[in-house]
Amino acid sequence: MHERRERFEHIYRILEEEYADTSSFISFAEPFQLLVGVILSAQSTDRQVNLILPELFVRFPTPKDLAEAPAEEIETLVRSVGFFRMKARNIKETARLVHERWRGRVPERMEDLLLLPGVGRKSANVIRGTIYGRPAIIVDTHFGRVVRRLGLTEERTPERIERDLASWIPPGKQYPFSMRINRHGRAVCTARRPACESCRLAPFCLRRGVVSRGEEERGGLGDDSTTRARSGESPGAR
User: Fold this and answer.
1) What's the pTM value of the predicted model, to 2 decimals?
2) Was 205 annotated as part of a binding site?
């Protein structure tokens, strides 16, 4: 654990230098807009969500307006995202709950956020970290991939990754670390052909399950064979 924490501190300092911006990928003017945005963003791009939100909130500015809106009209406004009918229903019901139970204010507590349809732990942590400044480990596909490659966790599922990292990463560093790792996963440590040769985190990375761009071009080993080769073990050894 000590070695892992020490590597984390090195990684955190480099990420601070590389990615000053820790703001949300979803553009919003007030908390309820971010809440709707994270519901829409599931299996959709942030770019697409950012195109939808302005028109949606010009038409229905408040939770009350959206709760009373015809479902068909919401569907029309959000139809460019995946699963738009289900998301339209979730948005309408979420708006009703926010209006009736919390008087138009987006709730802060995890247990309250999880009562909202279309909101899971990742979305709830986005709200808690972005709006309320609470400690938040935000596990999406980019984050999970990068922290596993770095060797900061052995866990595989989002909830277990969140629980593991939240147990030892200092609370004040959890949200900015999440946002910076996400940016790093999009820009450098991509799912396919990560740019390991130019990555500043490389000296502190265990490179679990990685074939870099340079190794792929040279016919490198990758995955477990990469780890074995770096330790001097034959790729065929067991």
Assistant:
1) 0.86
2) yes
Question: Scanning the structure block, which residue is given the tokens 């067991």?
Answer: 238
Query: Which contiguous run of DSSP H or E holds residue 49?
Result: helix 46-59
Q: What would the two tokens of residue 113 be?
A: 């956020």
193 backbone φψ class: left, alpha, beta (φ>0; ψ -120 to 50) = left
CA trace torsion 175, 177, 182, 187 (10° rounding) = 140
Catalytic residue among 64, 65, 87, 122: 122
Q: Token pair for residue 91?
A: 């948005």
Residue 189 assigned as binding residue = yes
Which of 46, 87, 140, 223 is catalytic? The answer is: 140
> Is 140 tagged catalytic?
yes
Contact indicator for 142, 190 with CB cutoff of 8 Å: no
> pLDDT for 63-111, tens place per residue?
999 999 999 999 999 999 999 999 999 999 999 999 999 999 999 999 9
199 is in an annotated binding site: yes
Domains and CATH numbers, the chain: 31-132 (1.10.340.30)
Q: How far is CA 178 from the centre of its chain?
A: 7
Residue 43 in marked binding region: no
